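Regression test attached.
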Amino acid sequence: MKILAVTGIRSEYDILFPVLNELENNKNFELKVVVTGAHLSYTHGLTINKIIEDGFNIADRIDYLLMTNRKTQRSKGVGILIEGLTQTVEREDPNMLIFVGDREESIATCIVGNYMNVLVAHIGGGDPVYGNADDPIRLSCSKLAHIHFATAKEYANNLKKIGEEKFRILNSGNPALNNIIKTKKISAKKLSNFLNIDIYNSQYIVVLQHPISSEVEDTNTQIQSTMEAVKEFSDINKIKVIGIYPNSDPGSYEIIDKINEYKSDDIKFYKNLPREIFVNVMRNTLALVGNSSMGILEAPLYKLPVINVGNRQKGRLNAGNVVFVEHNKIDIIKALNQACFDRKYRNNIQKLQNPYGDGSAHKKIVKFLEKIDLNNPKWYIKKKLI
Amino acid sequence: MKILAVTGIRSEYDILFPVLNELENNKNFELKVVVTGAHLSYTHGLTINKIIEDGFNIADRIDYLLMTNRKTQRSKGVGILIEGLTQTVEREDPNMLIFVGDREESIATCIVGNYMNVLVAHIGGGDPVYGNADDPIRLSCSKLAHIHFATAKEYANNLKKIGEEKFRILNSGNPALNNIIKTKKISAKKLSNFLNIDIYNSQYIVVLQHPISSEVEDTNTQIQSTMEAVKEFSDINKIKVIGIYPNSDPGSYEIIDKINEYKSDDIKFYKNLPREIFVNVMRNTLALVGNSSMGILEAPLYKLPVINVGNRQKGRLNAGNVVFVEHNKIDIIKALNQACFDRKYRNNIQKLQNPYGDGSAHKKIVKFLEKIDLNNPKWYIKKKLI
Amino acid sequence: MKILAVTGIRSEYDILFPVLNELENNKNFELKVVVTGAHLSYTHGLTINKIIEDGFNIADRIDYLLMTNRKTQRSKGVGILIEGLTQTVEREDPNMLIFVGDREESIATCIVGNYMNVLVAHIGGGDPVYGNADDPIRLSCSKLAHIHFATAKEYANNLKKIGEEKFRILNSGNPALNNIIKTKKISAKKLSNFLNIDIYNSQYIVVLQHPISSEVEDTNTQIQSTMEAVKEFSDINKIKVIGIYPNSDPGSYEIIDKINEYKSDDIKFYKNLPREIFVNVMRNTLALVGNSSMGILEAPLYKLPVINVGNRQKGRLNAGNVVFVEHNKIDIIKALNQACFDRKYRNNIQKLQNPYGDGSAHKKIVKFLEKIDLNNPKWYIKKKLI
Amino acid sequence: MKILAVTGIRSEYDILFPVLNELENNKNFELKVVVTGAHLSYTHGLTINKIIEDGFNIADRIDYLLMTNRKTQRSKGVGILIEGLTQTVEREDPNMLIFVGDREESIATCIVGNYMNVLVAHIGGGDPVYGNADDPIRLSCSKLAHIHFATAKEYANNLKKIGEEKFRILNSGNPALNNIIKTKKISAKKLSNFLNIDIYNSQYIVVLQHPISSEVEDTNTQIQSTMEAVKEFSDINKIKVIGIYPNSDPGSYEIIDKINEYKSDDIKFYKNLPREIFVNVMRNTLALVGNSSMGILEAPLYKLPVINVGNRQKGRLNAGNVVFVEHNKIDIIKALNQACFDRKYRNNIQKLQNPYGDGSAHKKIVKFLEKIDLNNPKWYIKKKLI
């Protein structure tokens, strides 16, 4: 079975990686990767280099990420990607396309698979999060994809609710968890050196905040209240701050500009961190603040308290480690105090049940793929669409 | 309220037309039309000229239809259209996009609306037909569109089943019915003259068969069995045949080539017929054979027996006038005999209930649109996606 | 040296073929072909199949030919092609791009080569023909290409006149002539059978007329006067007519429609003829009428009288076999009479000197390419542009 | 006469502006502007806002600038732009397209004009500068454009040399000079405040260095030697440094990163400066260092010594104010010492003759355009191409 994986951004590649690795090491599969989007952007850390290092065979590089902050960026970008991907899929003639999530790559892959009559497997469907332009895209992809790997039982059930046939759905859990489990421990001293911030003698929190499309006009004030809160909390408690720059969506430039105003010896931001560094940073942080999906989907594995600011991620399955607060400095500081210093609260989080699986998702996914009979027409035509 | 309608092919424009006409004549709306796809193709009869005649303001002409018969045609075409439509939507800055159905225009409009944060209204969602590349696209559009005008009660219910909120859904019925109702009668003599075939002294059947994407490799043998059956039926019974060439999808060239082999004084095919001619042709035909959606969606209004050949249209609501047969000459002839000459069968069809409304869909749709409060955020963000 | 050839239409591929064949059989070169444009169009005879039969390695298929007859067709087409070709060139990473002529493929290849810093070799520059949208494109390509293979001495000199450095230019002659020389003779009987027209007992002329962009509004009347003339000449003299359908440019549909009105047992038109058939048809025809470049560039090898109708091909080097006439029935018939029946005129043409070489162009070109030192920066940067 | 101007970057818009302003104020012309490229990029200062402030009617915004530093950026970018611009030109149906220079916008405008049969006017042709991917593009545009406004007599002659007809060419001079002449004086104190650097009590030099495509691999070491030289020169002589970030070409990110390492209280860089600030900065600087075309084309008006580092701008007409040096710290410092402190050298520059006109180019251009008879076919078809 020849599989073409499509990936466009670091965060989504991290989820895909354990699956790709498992496919690469299985002689029943031939794997190639289409690298697009932010992976090809210098500003976003040229993460294609990570994919090359990981040793995957690259089928094509497809530029589509436009250098603008207007809403046209993602819309036109999907069009450019579909044009290029069609060319790749015709040449490579794969048996299956695979992708993760809800971004430009996702819908482009589904559309190309649909018209080119190639099976499409989707990791991460059935998630009812709302408020961002990504969210309806995810559901739209579920109606086009032929095979669904859900990251939680509830999400697998959601896929059935919207009419997907049972035999197409597997509750695999979140493949990204395997990255975390497999990552070797790095000492706080080494981390401090690498990051050029002293987190050996000092505790720290992590900040990761993206723009949200339905509120893009408020981006500036939203990130400002987070940064104000974080700075005050850091000053008062002598706690360091480690941040990651946002994704490439419209509004990201405003966030970067605002973040840069707050950078200091105690508040450091990074374009991208190598996975092993990042995982170790997450293992030792007091809390995560912002609106990254990681707070919902991966933080439970770390038993990590999360303050989710604003409406992004609303609707998602909360393992119990997430508190939702408004874009308001005082509320954020209050939540940070609870997350970092309230012993009882922190103890409860240590006991949570992770609904996103046990880190073996990649193995379950590949086993499922191995059993697919490519000659069985049931996979290609959905006779039941509702 | 400024509305931008997107249309790409004659068959879908016919459904859209009564709605556009109603909007154009209502001073609460400003309407422009984006003309794309087969409308701009000489081969498909340059139906943009009909839109110009109808008097609508054209926002942009966007070419995307590629001159190939490969599967890449529709896939790459969607990408090209999204690029162009993004440019149009930014410039025109409409309050709403409106479209019909399940084709390239449909998914392109939904994607652009989603990322550009513009409301999208979809006519024709909730229809569970399967087997063609269009069909999952229709469902995918439903998860992205903000407002749904279903053509039947069952379809409106289907939209709720896949998670769409009730307040977004209206069972309007099929707007195209109004075209039929409003069309003046033309005498058989005049029709004969116009069509250059004698249907004044002779009865006739109508043929309309498109390729189906999931069986595109069999296109040639499929159209051959239809044409063989039709020819034999015509020869034996001295019945004329009026046909329309297929749409622009991959496989259409093979169909045209095969059709051309069978053309004769008794079997005539046309690129496109003016609406008033076509409606009168349908009013007087003994039966319709092929796989056009019209057999399901419009033929009930004519109380017309339909022989649907093959898998296209399977899954759709059958008003009782449709018989499904395989791609087999003998079966088709048998069904034609029943449809044309079995008095009891024909009488039963005269009594059917049309599930697709009473021809007032356009009025219901515009009334619904008038009541929408564009400042209410509920329309823009689907808080319930499943 | 890895070479990527770019081809988009049968007429231009015929010129390229001997060069590709020579490269394929030379172990110093690795060759791949990018197939685009009309080669991928069913309407134009799917000539990609010929390229596959010829045994070349296809790097990518890139659709760009839009199904419209508007001027947007070629303009937007170039853009779509550049997008796709950039992707191919980055992946294949060739040392050189090679192409023929003056069409969409030509300018797209030059632009991609320029920005991707890959050498570009152009076959057919320096030709001062004017009146068609292709013509300034040809010159524009000459300013971007790094290596020039001219088809005549005068054209090589023209390249120097517009500022190209001498070391970049070779007067190779026209590679297409080799196809003609190498083609085996086929008897008139066999030709008659293949073509389904009796050219064994009857003489014939050949018609090949394309639209011209600067006069596209007059396409209809232009082809009509040619067809009227040809029909009358055929009727009076009992001479058969063999025609080829036009290329894909705007206006081509009008030409096809008009041609179809004149088709009869004595006047046959073909979408495409296999090369060996076509060459034998040309060997035995009394004359060629229309406006194909073949009348100028290849007919001298056949010592064939040509009637060039209208302004297309004006400015080109006339070997002495071409008469230019207006779009006027009487003038065309007069010229046909001279070309077919004036013995003295026909004898003079037998004595002409062919300025387009001796059929060894492909060998000269490959020898030139073999000597290029890819590490010498002189090839990449034109220090003298004027 | 309806004119559509196409602009993509601040530097080129500055040249275009006086012409647009003159057209806007002339009732014989209807003007619209297509805004593309870096104008739409937040990173490049969203200079579309300047165009809006200047009061021009915007026909369309066309994104094409890809967020990558690979060579694909400009190549694919041209394709995307051509697609969008074709749509705009069909809708607007202008009589003429106008553009400046040698960038993606330039070649895209020429191609669209050629195939859409719309006149194209080019400002800045005939310049034999070499070494950058832009340079052959400029010449390529000259062969496609119908009307040429050269910025110097020698350049006008060059256009004739490459075969352009005399009646199409006007030596207008450089329109940008008018911006400089018209700009009001701003005091050093106010400039210091605005720029947040003290250039009231201290002298300063200006740095403006772009990547060069034929040496893009050396970008990092090239900018480093400039920055090292500038820093040392600044330290030793207590002279401030004002810099502008580079354009959007591949290599620009490396330049920005390197520049950022050298920023200090004495060395300040700006994304973009308002025109009136920039002109006043240029009026008072001791010298300009880098490789901007401004050093060649505009600095003569300021009688300003220029150190051009490296091969960019080579081949251009030097008014006598430019010294070319290698990418070598010591050579740059030596040249800076001469430029800033060698009184005799500086006196000679005061006496130079400006070959780029007297600042009235915009008036000459508009007068030329007014006299064009749009019905005369000579403008549309170049009967003499060589």
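Expected vs. actual: identical. Chain C has a mean pLDDT of 97.
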